[in-house]
Design a protein that fits this description.
Elements: H1 6-39, H2 48-59, H3 64-75, E1 85-92, E2 98-105, H4 108-121, E3 125-126, E4 136-139, E5 142-145, E6 149-151, H5 154-168, E7 173-178, E8 180-182
């Protein structure tokens, strides 16, 4: 009876729980960072959006050291005292769909390498500055698509969604914008 050991069952169950917990932690950390950027401060007494984000982080049992790290990153400082930079990466996903990836990082080389690796595994490529920005307009800090590409193939839609999810799971990535629309969605 292969695969019926108690250890194997515990390992599989715990692995699934760890994936869910990690995803919840990264979502909470991004919410904390964006609340600080929008609200203008790291004090929850004066920033109600930050207060709500901290409450959500505590409700999913996010450790205090991870919460403090997210607050520090939102304020633009790290433990080593280095400055956080906002960088936009541009590239193309499989099928020629333009992408802009916004990030806040303390190490440009590490972030570029991580993004390049994820994109190349998905069949895309990280491009040079300006290669995809002509497809977007930046309005109030958000990118809006000016030249949308209609994507009809369901496998391509699924692959694009998986690529976007993989990129958003990176700690340094703030958001991912694509110059494509799913057929049937507006």
């Amino acid at each position: 009876m292969a695969g019926h050991s108690k250890w194997n069952n515990i390992k599989n169950r715990k692995g699934a729980q760890d994936i869910k917990r990690g995803k919840a932690f990264s979502q909470c950390a991004k919410a904390i960072k964006s609340a600080i950027k929008e609200g203008g401060g790291g004090d929850p007494k004066f920033n109600p959006t930050l207060r709500l984000a901290l409450d959500k982080a505590r409700s999913v049992n996010m450790p205090n050291d991870k919460i403090q790290k997210a607050i520090d990153r939102g304020l633009g400082k790290t433990a080593a005292g280095t400055v956080m930079d906002e960088i936009n990466y541009e590239g193309f996903a499989a099928g020629g769909v333009g992408m802009i990836i916004t990030s806040i990082t303390d190490n440009k080389n590490r972030t570029a390498s991580e993004i390049r690796t994820i994109m190349s595994k998905a069949g895309g490529a990280l491009g040079s500055p300006g290669c995809a920005s002509y497809m977007f307009n930046r309005v109030d800090g958000e990118y809006q698509v000016t030249m949308p590409m209609i994507i009809t193939d369901e496998t391509q839609q699924q692959n694009l969604q998986e690529l976007m999810d993989s990129l958003r799971e990176l700690d340094d990535v703030e958001d991912v914008y694509i110059a494509g629309e799913w057929e049937g969605k507006e």
